[in-house]
Specification:
With 192 residues, this protein is mostly helical. It is 68% helix and 6% strand. It has a two-stranded antiparallel ribbon with strand order 1-2. The longest helix has 27 residues. The radius of gyration is 29 Å and the shape is elongated. The N and C termini lie far apart (69 Å).
């Protein structure tokens, strides 16, 4: 079964000596002495330090330079985790943008929230291989739309009290249109 396949794989890369008292497996390929160049080590250390200091854009820049160095020098032994570090840095940038947007929403700074949501969306689209989901953006857009919906309802109520029915109606119709587009708790002021 599996032993035959193992023997064939070992024969491809080495030699098997079979004796009743001894089994020897050796590698025929010469091991090249690989060294980690100082340039790569320096770039990698700078990138890891930037990650520790939450400077993710800087980390990505250093990681990309290290990655470029590795591609230009295939004989060098480079860190196999480089791609994973880059991905983690990109995810951290994306998460930070979502956090800033959410914090802005909580503070009532809707313009800044929308700006950070847009930045997060653009960043996600640019790095969709590393950030495949838009779930965080979708949740924040839903939260922002709900805030806008409640604003329209409150404006409608305000203008009803001021007997400015046309403006009130425009706000309430806009809010009602949002009800069909988004899933959130509906206001009972609007007819269904």
């Amino acid at each position: 079964g599996n032993l035959t396949r193992i023997v064939e794989n070992v024969k491809q890369i080495g030699e098997i000596t079979d004796d009743i008292s001894l089994i020897k497996i050796s590698n025929n390929k010469e091991e090249k002495s690989k060294t980690i160049p100082e340039d790569f080590t320096s770039l990698n250390n700078k990138a890891e330090l930037a990650v520790k200091n939450n400077k993710y854009e800087e980390a990505i820049e250093h990681f990309n330079k290290a990655m470029y160095f590795c591609k230009q020098n295939p004989e060098s032994e480079c860190n196999d985790n480089l791609n994973e570090f880059i991905k983690e840095s990109k995810l951290a940038i994306y998460d930070r943008l979502l956090f800033l947007a959410d914090s802005s929403l909580d503070e009532g700074n809707y313009e800044n929230a929308e700006l950070n949501i847009t930045k997060a969306k653009d960043f996600q689209q640019l790095h969709s291989n590393d950030i495949p989901t838009t779930e965080g953006i979708d949740k924040l857009n839903g939260k922002l739309n709900y805030v806008h919906y409640k604003y329209l309802i409150n404006e409608g109520k305000f203008f009803i009290k001021k007997y400015e029915y046309q403006v009130a109606l425009e706000n309430l119709e806009s809010a009602q249109a949002m009800e069909s587009q988004y899933i959130f708790e509906k206001d009972t002021l609007l007819p269904y």
